[in-house]
Design a protein that fits this description.
By secondary structure, the protein is an alpha/beta fold. It contains 9 helices and 12 strands.
Length: 301
C-alpha cells in the first residue's frame, strides 16, 4: 500500500472548490492542490445534453460525493475523467494533465494512476480472487514476488486474505465489491473513482464498503469521486473518520469540520445545482434540493 506522502500539500479548507459559473480562462489551473478540475464541461449525445457547463474541483485528499437522479450525468463524469469520452467543449484536468487533449497512449499512462470501482465489481468469472486483484500488475509484467506481495497487502486492506483462492461465484455481493476495491488500489493510485459502490447491497454491507472508502481517504489521503444513489453513504463519510487504533470508523463529534475531507455535488439535468459541505447541504432552502433530500432519504435510507 502507498506510504503517506509527506510532500503532499495540507488540506486547505479556504479553497472550497466552487467554480460553477466562473470563467477560468484568465488563470492557470491549480493542479498542485487539485487532483481533478472540470472547467465548463459540455457533452451531449445526438443533440441530447448530458452535461451542460459543469465546473468543479476535487482537492487533493478529498472525497467528493456526486448525487443526482438517474440520467443526470453522474457516471458520465467518471468516464470523462478516464478519457473514455471527450467533451464537446470545456477542459478536464486530472493530476495536472488536460485529458481533453491527450492521445490514447498518454491516457493509458495516466490511467495507471487512477483506480476505478465498478458498481457490479466487473470481476473476471474465470479468475480467482488473487488473479482478479493482480490483473493490472500482471499486464505490466511486474516480478511475481512483487505481485504476490501487493495482492496480499490489498486483500489485507479489505480484510479478504482468506478468500485469495476463491472464484467470484463463491463470494457474496459485498465480498465481490471488496475485491473490486482491492483491485482498484493495488496500483497505488492517486485518484479513485467509485461508481455506485454500495448499489444493490444491504445496509450493513453498505456500511462496510463505506468504511473501506473512509479508510482509504483518511489513512492514505487518496483523492476520490464517489457516484452514489445513497445520500446516507455521503453523510456517513462526512460525519465519521477512520480510527487506525480500533480499525473502525468513529463519529467526528468534536473534530474540526475541515479535517473530514468530504464534499457534495448534486447534478440536475446536466448542471451542478449544488456544491458544498454536508452542513450546507442540510441547511440549503432551495426547493429542488429540499425535495431531493426527502426523496433520496425515503428511497435509500
Amino acid at each position: 500500500m502507498p506510504p503517506l506522502d509527506a510532500s503532499m500539500p495540507p488540506f486547505d479548507d479556504r479553497t472550497d472548490g466552487r467554480t460553477n459559473g466562473r470563467s477560468n480562462n484568465d488563470r492557470n489551473p491549480d493542479t498542485v492542490h487539485k487532483a481533478i478540475i472540470f472547467e465548463d464541461v459540455v457533452l451531449g449525445f445526438e443533440d441530447v445534453p448530458v452535461l451542460d457547463g459543469v465546473s468543479f474541483e476535487l482537492r487533493r485528499g478529498e472525497t467528493k460525493v456526486i448525487l443526482g437522479v438517474a440520467g443526470s450525468g453522474k457516471s458520465t463524469i467518471l468516464k470523462l475523467c478516464l478519457g473514455l469520452l471527450k467533451p464537446d467543449s470545456g477542459r478536464i484536468y486530472v493530476l495536472g494533465h488536460d485529458v481533453t487533449t491527450m492521445t490514447e497512449e498518454e491516457l493509458f499512462d495516466l490511467r495507471s494512476k487512477v483506480g476505478i470501482v465498478f458498481q457490479e465489481s466487473a470481476l473476471f468469472d474465470s479468475l480467482n480472487v488473487r488473479d482478479n486483484v493482480a490483473f493490472r500488475l500482471m499486464e505490466e509484467h511486474l516480478p511475481e514476488a512483487e505481485v504476490q506481495k501487493r495482492v496480499r497487502e490489498s486483500l489485507s486492506f479489505v480484510e479478504l486474505e482468506a478468500a485469495i483462492d476463491k472464484l467470484p461465484s463463491e463470494l457474496s455481493g459485498g465480498m465481490r465489491r471488496r475485491v473490486g476495491i482491492a483491485r482498484a488500489i493495488i496500483t497505488q493510485p492517486e485518484v479513485l473513482l467509485y461508481d455506485s459502490p454500495t448499489g444493490g447491497l444491504d445496509p450493513i454491507t453498505s456500511t462496510t464498503i463505506i468504511e473501506l472508502i473512509m479508510k482509504q481517504r483518511d489513512v492514505f489521503k487518496t483523492s476520490a469521486l464517489m457516484v452514489t444513489h445513497r445520500l446516507q453513504d455521503g453523510f456517513t463519510l462526512a460525519s465519521h473518520y477512520f480510527d487506525p487504533a480500533s480499525k473502525h470508523m468513529k463519529s467526528s463529534d468534536g473534530m474540526p469540520s475541515q479535517d473530514i475531507r468530504t464534499s457534495f455535488m448534486i447534478l440536475r439535468e446536466g448542471k451542478a445545482v449544488f456544491e458544498g459541505s454536508a452542513h450546507e447541504l442540510g441547511q440549503v432552502q432551495d426547493p429542488y434540493i429540499k425535495l431531493f433530500r426527502r426523496m433520496f432519504t425515503a428511497l435509500h435510507p
